[in-house]
Amino acid sequence: MGIYKVIDLVGTSENSWEEAAKSAVEKAAQSLDDLRVAEVISQDLKIENGKVVAYRTKVSMSFKFKGT
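and the corresponding structure tokens:
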């Protein structure tokens, strides 16, 4: 048995939503142990002067909670 904590993070990329999601997961993995699942919650674009400047992907991630 285990307990898992779920958090939401937003990754960004100048190239794609996929790269933005990957960025969020890889950054989270630097400080969280035992990541289990990442689910894409939403995607949006940052626009400046009528041009897309960034892709943003919100992901919900779970990891094993070691507090118990």
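(Above: one complete record from the training split.) The chain has a mean pLDDT of 93.
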